[in-house]
Design a protein that fits this description.
- This protein is mainly β.
- The protein contains 6 helices and 48 strands.
- The protein has 3 domains: about 70 residues, 3-Layer(bab) Sandwich (Phage tail protein beta-alpha-beta fold), CATH 3.55.50; about 120 residues, Ferric Hydroxamate Uptake Protein, Chain A, domain 1 (Beta Complex), CATH 2.170.130; about 550 residues, TonB-dependent receptor, beta-barrel domain (Maltoporin, Chain A).
- It has a 22-stranded antiparallel β-barrel.
- α1 packs antiparallel against α3.
- The protein starts with about 30 loop residues before the first strand and ends with a strand.
- One of its GO terms (molecular function) is siderophore uptake transmembrane transporter activity.
- This is TonB-dependent siderophore receptor.
- It is found in: Cell outer membrane.
Length: about 850
Amino acid sequence: MVTTPLTFGLHGLAVAVPIVESGQKNTDKTVVFHIGAQSLGSALAVFGQQAGYQMTADGTLTRGVATQGVSGRMPVVDGLRHLLAGTGLSYMAKGSDAFVIVKNGSAITLGPVRVGGTLGHEDPRGPGVGYVAQSSFSGTKTDTPITEIPGSIYVVTKQQMLDQQVQNLAEALRYTPGIYAEGMGQQTNGAAAGFGGGTFIQRGFSSSQFIDGMISNSQVALDPSFIERVETINGPSSVMYGQAAPGGIINETLKRPTETPLRSVSVGFGNWNRYQATFDVSDKVNASGSVKYRIAGIGVTQDTQTDYVGYRRVGISPSISWKIDDKTDLTLIGNYVYTPQDGAYSSYLPAVGTLFPGKYGRLPRNLFMGEPGWNNHKESGGLFEYLFSHRFNSHLTFQQTFRYEASKTNFSYVYTKYGALDADGVTQPRVAFAVPNTTRTASLDSRLAGNFRTGEVKHTAIAGVDFWDYHSNGQYYRSAANSLNIYDPVYGEFVPHFGYPGMGSANATSWSWFGRNTYDQVGVYFQDQIKYKGLTVTLGGRQDWYSQYSWSQSNFPYTGRSSTTQSPFSTQAFTWRAGATYEFAFGLAPYFSYATSFQPQTGTDMEGHAFKPTQGKQYEAGLKYKPIGFDGLFTASAFHIDQTNVLTSDPQNPGYSIQTGQMTSQGFEVSAQANVTRNLRFLASYTYDDVRYSKSTDTTVPYYYDPTSNQAGYHMYAGAAVPLQGKYANAVPRNMTSMFINYALPEGRLRGLELNFGTRYVGWTYGNTANSFKVPAFILFDTGARYDFGKASPVLKGLVGQVTISNLSNAYYVTSCGTAQCYIGQGRRVYGNLTYNW
């Protein structure tokens, strides 16, 4: 007799199944259920999680079947009867820990047949359903309902990314609470420069980016065509991931083979001469479906809103999954992209002429401060990843993930020199750089996951070890560059002077740097999720050992001086987390947690003692609400984060640092994600974040603008240095709010048409750390439409057209500033595509 369970998604496979009562589980125990109206397949998955049973069914039985759900405390079998009421289906017990879904009155027996597939519940690494994800793997490294995680987890589902037609990670995160995705260097030119890069501000700190749960240091950004979902964990996450910023991490999940066949091709077009083609195909390799494949690809070419800056990319991502046997799974994923022009343009514009009135008016968004033919970002990169899982028995599972990444970049650019305009109000000094670099990273995460009970208490425990090894080999050349008239730019006069000996004073800033860096991290971690009735207590700890070796050589040819440094460094840190969540029968789950994080620092103090890692410490309390009978998730959280051990000036020994500095971030977030009806999807969020330098001995120089002053004219001037302590962090909005809605018109003459609309508000920010001027708030509008041509004619089945417009009003806005320069936001972007699915 074969004991492999049938799975969801077998598409009508006729199989005889013998039901053997080999043991009796306590099916009359009472369980608190809160499962809303939804598709029966996803509801059975949630039921299995809440009841602690394995639920299996033929996919043809559940396809297109909905349930009204079940709520309240009741015996397991009564809950399952309520869940199946009105569906025409019933159940049979299989062994001691599973139910098989059958037709009413059916008796099924199992012959000698091997059935492949996976459990038919919502995959915590999958695309999600609509705008709502039920569970997450990122928050705990276990398949856990989001309502049981004592922290803030937000999921950007595949449907949301499709509705908004996102072209990079910044656009995917626009509607996520706690994250400012359009700050320093983000979306300053309308480029679609891959799926990552730049700096994201998460709860007031720079984010750390991960791929499939392991830190990514590749210089090449992933493309949205290869991403299944994006999750953000707001707050310290080192207990599971090692070194990470206290504000949180962003975890991107790569596409992998699907349970049902997938065939999709698309062609796209947009303003700035964008043309794009993609394909995404997934199917089984063998008859049983134990081996499946998926391959996705993209080719894109586009100019940008900045003159002389383009984006060109081709990429491919193949993957294959093999269900080796009933207990063993292996998935292999590859990814490669070649980007001869990555669309990045990080050069800021003067604050005078963008944020403040300029001598001859406002500067246009397309102003290019570089040199045509010189400014270019070339990059190529690839990765290989495998995910392995073996279940020893119903209680113990071994899981392992490995990834190897390699990237090669060659950046050359002329851009705005740090500082203000010249006194004439039109001349902007510039500087040139050339930065070739290669990187390679190897990561390995191995863990044992166990499920067991101690009386009425259920434990989900993991213990693991991960390893991360990073190497980079880079060069950095700097040269002086000629100034540019911002109102009448004349290009072609730039002559690079990289490495020239005996240069004159005009080129005295030219120098070169060569460096090799090696970073290694080993971490050992454990976690136990202890569940008793509605209470879940999560406890975890981690010990990390970190080492770094850096070699660099700097050359200053105009003086004939050079220097070589070697910096071996090692440190260790212990981080932990504790939290509790209580789920009421009606769907409300209050929680509280304390978590820590660490980030290494290099260098020594006056006495030669190595600096300790910075330490992040967060208190968080919140509410999560998943209403009974409604497919939505509502959250609210309040947090307080202190980052300690921050380097600050040593007042007794100028030129040295001490670790008495501190950054503090405190605020709250609220969000709503809902599939309100079959035709209506909805997102909304609000963030308040107060971030300041709570302890510091440093000073900072303020810059001022005063057009009536003889000193200022049409430029900014520096004031006297002021203490940094007590100042607010620049480029961090105190207030952000957003809303997005997608509506499919009901049956009728316009059947097949969907419309969406979104709005994003970003409050004012300080323009520099001295808080001497502010960047005004702005509000943006996004809209779009999709039409399924198959609803109009069966001949056109599978053909879908879509168009989206971001920044509908083409508002001119400043995203952030630093000292006397600012970043300009993306203008109106129009993008449309035609997709054919079969």
